[in-house]
Design brief:
Helix content is 42%, strand content 18%. By secondary structure, it is an alpha+beta fold. Strands 12-13-14-18-15-17-16 form a 7-stranded mixed beta sheet, with helices on both faces. The two termini are 51 Å apart. Belongs to the peptidase M16 family. InterPro entries: Metalloenz_LuxS/M16 (IPR011249), Pept_M16_N (IPR011765), Pept_M16_Zn_BS (IPR001431), Peptidase_M16 (IPR050626), Peptidase_M16_C (IPR007863).
């Protein structure tokens, strides 16, 4: 629905203290349509959307939205909507075999990143993201791909058979404990409707054995223009694109006597449903209480916006209350959320989700239910609504300031809502005016009435994901908790204890001075030296309008502390962030910051301590205040320390049945040794070694010397605005002018060559392969890029061999990296999941592909695809302020200029097959190696 729902930042609209200038609207007034989006329908029924934007210069994204999903399958087709999605990349009328991928990869596109698709129960969407748009031939190619995806898939028998294994491995990769739990609960969620038996991944017996014609029939029945929309978003000429669409897509025939595109409503149910689901690999419980409703048809009017606004206000405030409770040690849940959302095409749900602490399922459900009942019975305080109003207006204004920066994916999200759910593509300025009118008269009674309407007696479903060994919440107890909460006469209204606090409180600041300025003409930046010794490197950047980012770092980090203190060192900043800042608890801090678009955080990692911040320009002073307080008035709350330890204890318990955690722990023990003093896994000793006093003292030590930090500030802020803020908030922090470095103490592998099979009990048998090569290696820009080339070329090779040819894995992930600190090391890591019965067949292929590269058998096409990808990614990155931050940090910290072609473009363009071969041999010969394969324990 409406713009506010689509742009994500405006989900929770609230307020009542607005300007009297707000307009008056009638309930039937329509929400104005966004005129920037060109929309039309071709004679054959296909819908098209065109949205010109320069948010990513010289690129465009191309989507085809199919109003087709797994819900349309018959019993012999389960999984074929998703199968068909895969086949769209395996041959079309104008692109044989892997022609689509090969063609677009030559333009720098990456499969999985720029070229992808997804299938759900009700839709299938294909995308080509951020493809170069200034070459007319490339634009025509992308439109031709959409054209072929619409009606011209080849669906050859050979390609169908080749894809069966890939999809089976995708199922295997995704068939984890949560997926198995979902399968147990689906009949309750959907009241045994067709949705229960139409999960997109499908039935693997059908996937492996269906007859070719069955897939072709599904394609013929449902892939047709009256169920399709295409969307082109980017740096394009809308009129030219429209003309091309009308010409190119005209040959797609109008369907004759097409099957009706049906929609399924979940049947009504008077009696409540309860279901407990268990799985041996589930280690954390969860509770869900939902009430199904018929979907409210979009009217796209003021009245609908008013209703949604009132609901979102209430739910946002209620979720703030639940989040406050979760910050108390005695709270029985880790988190709880409540809301109202779309569920299927014809059904919405009111839903309360609770994540209990171990052994606290009933207590957690009681507390969450009480908060819900408290809200709809007693409503919300004036202060809560005021803060929500301030936050909402700020969010709207920030969004309107950045209308030209809406991402391609945000636009596509709006387009999908319009096409699939008939929700208007709203004009955000006009909607803001309507919202102000709504907020002018809002009150708690309205909010209570709106959310109470959603809490009905019919269609109630309670599901519990239980844990073996816990006292799991059962049906009788769950229904009793609901009934008692609804009838609890002892419940009292929420008390809002927050009173007019400010960020700085009574803190007095004595400003320092900027003692020197130096222009860095090579990168158009300025370095300010402050009176306390701090260096601030600044660069103006307005690719992201009215946005400012700050980063600061100092060397040292965890490396400076002994073994027993490592847990306290790692968690010290977590404690400080949980505790709030200055005179404010974290709860009060969040309230003070309502309506401000500003934040700051601190971290300590193995080699550095870091401060970061970001803000809208109008709130830059708030960001600077936060940064100042991180140094001069951090807060350490003993209750938050107890909560932190409790959370870690809960996490440790949750790892007991977590198969991924077991694998990670086994991997670490094999590679580094079980009791390596330089490795601190999360175990009981880790928690026991935590100390409140040590955490506090380590934090104060790491952030004691601001002069040892280098600051980087990038954004849409002028020196005239920034300099006084630097003098007041950064130069005023006392520095002790120590000169620290990190210590070099790197954990070694247990052996130069590690080769282990690890057998582990699994509910869904599979093998998980982990292969790595590591070696001390000279660091340079060219070596770093060569290492990345090696990893990405191997990714292309494994996609072709392991995935496409063998059907052995859904995908192999390869990462090539060369790091500088604490010592220079290079290497590659290869991971993938596969059928346990095929792993011994697939492993030699992994090494064969490496050996081919070492022998110089490298496809020129693979090099060009990788080269184009790197050059394209670099150009795309220049559209955002983050590039300028990388530019100045690399210039001052690493000593090279990203803008100088010799440091990237010239290297990428010059790389040859011979250089990659020589690098591979140099890096991998005599490198430390590991092959650790997890296999199912039979």
């Amino acid at each position: 629905m409406k713009y506010s729902k689509k742009i994500a930042i405006l989900l929770f609209v609230a307020g009542c203290f607005l300007s009297a200038k707000a307009q008056n609207f009638k309930a039937t007034d329509p929400i104005a349509v966004n005129q920037k989006i060109k929309k039309g329908v071709l004679p054959n029924g296909m819908t098209y959307y065109i949205y010109p934007t320069e948010v990513n210069k010289n690129t465009a994204s191309y989507y085809i939205i199919q109003n087709v999903g797994s819900i349309l399958e018959n019993d012999q087709q389960k999984g074929l909507a998703h199968f068909l999605e895969h086949m769209a990349f395996n041959g079309t009328k104008n692109f044989e075999g892997k022609g689509i991928l090969n063609t677009l990869q030559k333009q720098g596109a990456v499969f999985g990143k720029n070229i992808n698709a997804y299938t759900s129960t009700d839709e299938t969407v294909y995308n080509l993201d951020n493809i170069p748009s200034k070459d007319g031939g490339v634009v025509d190619t992308c439109l031709l791909v959409l054209h072929d995806w619409s009606n011209f898939l080849s669906l050859t028998n050979e390609e169908i058979d080749a894809e069966r294994g890939v999809i089976t491995e995708e199922w295997r990769t995704r068939q984890n404990a949560r997926a198995r739990i979902y399968n147990q609960l689906a009949s309750s969620y959907y009241n045994n409707s067709l949705y229960t038996d139409r999960m997109p991944i499908g039935d693997m017996d059908i996937v492996k054995n269906f007859k070719y014609q069955v897939l072709k029939d599904f394609y013929k029945d449902w892939y047709r223009p009256d169920l399709q929309a295409i969307a082109i978003v980017g740096d394009i000429n809308a009129d030219e694109i429209e003309a091309k669409i009308k010409k190119l897509f005209a040959d797609i025939p109008t369907p004759v006597n097409p099957k009706k595109r049906f929609e399924i409503a979940i049947p009504e149910k008077t009696e409540p449903t309860f279901k407990l689901a268990l799985d041996k690999e589930i280690s954390a419980s969860s509770i869900s209480f939902m009430i199904r409703h018929e979907t409210e048809k979009a009217t796209n009017t003021y009245a609908e916006l008013e209703k949604t606004t009132q609901r979102n206000i209430a739910f946002s405030i209620l979720n703030n209350r639940l989040a406050e409770l979760a910050q108390k040690q005695e709270c029985p849940f880790k988190g709880a959320q409540i809301g109202y959302q779309n569920y299927t095409r014809l059904n919405d749900i009111w839903i309360l989700s609770v994540s209990p602490k171990p052994g606290k399922q009933a207590e957690a459900f009681v507390m969450a239910m009480n908060e819900w009942v408290r809200a709809y019975k007693f409503g919300f305080s004036k202060g809560e609504i005021e803060r929500a109003a301030t936050e909402t207006i700020s969010s709207y204004e920030n969004y309107l300031d950045k209308l030209n920066e809406i991402s391609h994916k945000q636009v596509i999200g709006m387009v999908k809502e319009d096409y699939l759910k008939h929700e208007v593509l709203a004009d955000p300025v006009a909607e803001f005016e309507m919202t102000k009118s709504i907020l002018k008269n809002i009150n708690t009674k309205m909010l209570q009435e709106q959310i109470s309407k959603l809490y009905t007696q019919k269609n109630r479903v309670v599901t519990v994901t239980g844990v073996d060994g816990e006292e799991n919440l059962m049906q009788e107890k769950a229904f009793d908790i609901i009934q008692k909460a609804e009838n609890d006469a002892s419940l009292q209204p929420y008390v809002d204890t927050f009173e007019g606090k400010t960020l700085l409180g009574n803190l007095k600041i004595n400003p320092g001075k900027i003692v020197s300025e130096k222009k860095e003409t090579a990168i158009d930046a300025t370095t300010f030296v402050l009176s306390n010794g701090v260096k601030v490197h600044y660069k103006f950047a307005d690719k992201n309008k009215k946005q400012v980012n700050l980063e600061a770092e100092s060397k040292g980090g965890i490396s400076l502390y002994k073994f027993d203190d490592i847990p306290s060192a790692y968690r010290s900043t977590s404690l400080a962030m949980m505790s709030g800042i200055g005179e404010l608890s974290n709860v009060d801090l969040e309230k003070v910051l309502k309506g401000k678009i500003a934040n700051s955080s601190v971290t300590i990692n193995s080699l550095k301590e870091e401060v970061s911040g970001s803000a809208n320009v109008k709130d830059i002073e708030t960001m600077m205040e936060l940064v100042h307080l991180r140094f001069v008035q951090p807060r350490f709350d003993a209750q938050m320390y107890a909560l932190l330890k409790q959370r870690l204890q809960n996490s440790l318990k949750n790892r007991e049945n977590d198969i991924n955690a077991k694998m990670q722990d086994s991997l670490s023990n094999i590679v580094y040794g079980k009791n390596n003093p330089k490795i601190r896994p999360l175990n009981q000793k880790y928690i026991d070694d935590l100390s409140f006093d040590k955490m506090k003292s380590i934090y104060l030590d790491r952030f004691a010397d601001v002069s040892n930090f280098e600051f980087y500030i990038v954004g849409d802020v002028t020196p005239e605005v920034l300099k006084p803020l630097l003098e007041k908030y950064i130069a005023s922090i006392k520095g002790i002018k120590r000169n620290e470095k990190f210590k070099v103490d790197v954990p070694e592998w247990t052996s130069k060559k590690i080769d282990r099979d690890v057998f582990i009990k699994m509910e869904t048998p599979k093998s998980a392969v982990n292969i790595a090569f590591m070696k001390d290696y000279a660091y340079s820009q060219k070596n770093r890029i060569l290492n990345s080339f090696l990893g990405d070329i191997l990714t292309l090779r494994y996609t072709e061999s392991l995935r496409e040819k063998e059907g052995g894995t859904y995908g192999a992930q390869v990462k090539g990296s060369l790091v500088k600190d604490p010592i220079t090391k290079g290497g590659i890591q290869i991971t993938f999941d596969c059928d346990a019965d095929k792993v011994e067949h697939l492993l030699p292929i992994v090494y064969q592909e490496i050996d081919k590269i070492k022998k110089g058998e490298i496809a020129a096409e693979d090099i060009e695809k990788t080269r184009k990808s790197y050059l394209k990614s670099r150009e795309d990155s220049k559209n955002f302020n983050s590039y300028s931050m990388s530019l100045i940090s690399n210039y001052f910290e690493e000593g090279y200029n990203m803008n100088d072609p010799k440091n990237f473009e010239d290297i990428v363009n010059s790389i040859t097959s011979k250089e990659i071969q020589e690098f591979a041999n140099s890096l991998l010969d005599k490198a430390d190696s590991m092959e650790i394969v997890f296999k199912p324990l039979k």
